[in-house]
């Protein structure tokens, strides 16, 4: 809950308010084998905003979402969603949320319409209201033309839209989207991004989005929280996080030869730092890129190196991730051991 500046009275309640959440999984087969999924996680989302939860495999994103969706219990800490405590009032939380899991929840042997009507009935709508809501959602997600075809014949992008539509049947205030675009082709991803933007900006829904894609978070999230090993590494608006890095990125592509020679020349140019050579590409950073780039190009010319292309870029969330965790998100994914996830486990009691 947020407070007025003097801390006295509640101002606007956060739609999602998580404090000091911890969670450990224990494998019953192997005594003592425990996995600490959350180690004191804090996060908050204001109403009508998109919060991006980023982190490598195993960082604790899905565990967080499952606790917020009342599908799992925390060991300690507190979590409130739409003003309701997830452990004290899970029924109220469930009424207020939609949850779109990583894996599809729709029946591939049913039609799109049948899936939506069933979801509406399960949410307590009468038959007529469920049919009308299904029609509305089929239209809204641009899949009405396929409404009466079995979902197994739908494309991946259409099926993912149906998953999201199912999560919206009961008009939730807060929506959890767990990796909504993983596995989608670029066109389907872009279409899904437009939907997510429409839900947040148009419908005023609060959305917690977990993703592996930093460009996705940059585009959609009002605030991002980067988690690793069950803890928050950093958080803020994408722009504020990028601004903290200062300066510009410089990329130079060389005509021939390796970038090693260019790196030596670049390192001597005043203001050019963090020089990295990779094949024929040279990457560096500079506080004032517009001044440093001409000086760098002159130094390369003087060293007899031909340049094919050169450019400046603002820091990306990838740069933020690298600066904050010491490794790229991709590298972190590779390092995460898929075998680390146990399949047959029970939860450690709170
Ligand atoms: N049911 C479970 N039993 C045992 N360990 C689990 C279970 N679920 C998750 N874990 C472990 O808890 C840690 C956090 O997992 P979680 O799925 O929350 O991470 P994540 O950030 O969502 O990862 P991904 O991006 O791969 O979905 C990992 O070490 C994972 O192996």
Automatic annotation (TrEMBL):
UniProt keyword annotation of Transport present: yes
Record-linked Pfam families: ABC_tran, DrrA1-3_C
Region annotated Disordered, chain positions: 331-350
Gene3D superfamilies found in the cross-reference section: P-loop containing nucleotide triphosphate hydrolases
InterPro entries according to UniProt: AAA+_ATPase, ABC_transporter-like_ATP-bd, DrrA1/2-like_C, P-loop_NTPase
Signal sequence annotation: none
Record key words, sorted: ATP-binding, Nucleotide-binding, Transport
Residue ranges constituting the ABC transporter domain according to the UniProt record: 16-254
PROSITE patterns, per database record: ABC_TRANSPORTER_2 (PS50893)
Protein name: ABC transporter
């Amino acid at each position: 809950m947020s407070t007025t500046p003097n801390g006295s009275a509640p101002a606007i309640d956060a739609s999602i308010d998580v404090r000091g959440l911890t969670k450990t999984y224990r494998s019953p087969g192997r005594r003592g084998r425990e996995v600490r999924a959350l180690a004191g996680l804090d996060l908050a989302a204001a109403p009508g905003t998109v919060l991006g939860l980023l982190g490598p495999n195993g960082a604790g994103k899905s565990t967080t979402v499952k606790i917020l969706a009342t599908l799992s219990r925390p060991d300690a800490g507190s979590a409130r969603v739409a003003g309701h405590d997830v452990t004290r009032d899970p029924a109220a939380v469930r009424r207020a949320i939609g949850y779109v899991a990583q894996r599809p929840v729709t029946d591939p042997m049913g039609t799109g319409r049948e899936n939506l009507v069933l979801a509406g009935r399960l949410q307590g709508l009468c038959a007529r209201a469920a049919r009308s809501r299904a029609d509305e959602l089929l239209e809204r997600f641009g899949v009405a033309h396929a409404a009466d075809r079995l979902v197994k014949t739908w494309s991946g992008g259409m099926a993912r839209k149906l998953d999201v539509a199912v999560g919206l049947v009961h008009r939730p205030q807060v929506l959890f989207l767990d990796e909504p675009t993983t596995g989608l082709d670029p066109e389907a991803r872009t279409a899904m991004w437009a939907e997510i933007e429409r839900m947040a900006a148009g419908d005023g829904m609060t959305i917690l989005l977990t993703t592996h894609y930093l460009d996705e978070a940059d585009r959609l999230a009002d605030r991002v929280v980067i988690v690793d090993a069950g803890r928050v590494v950093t958080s803020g608006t994408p722009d504020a996080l990028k601004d903290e890095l200062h300066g510009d990125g410089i990329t130079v592509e060389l005509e021939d030869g390796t970038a090693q020679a260019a790196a030596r020349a670049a390192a001597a140019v005043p203001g050019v730092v963090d020089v990295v050579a990779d094949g024929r590409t040279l990457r560096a950073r500079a506080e004032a890129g517009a001044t440093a780039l001409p000086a760098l190009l002159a130094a390369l010319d003087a060293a007899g190196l031909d340049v094919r292309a050169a450019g400046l870029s603002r820091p990306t969330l990838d740069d933020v991730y690298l600066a904050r965790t010491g490794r790229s998100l991709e590298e972190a994914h590779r390092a995460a051991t898929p075998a680390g996830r146990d399949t047959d486990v029970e939860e450690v009691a709170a």
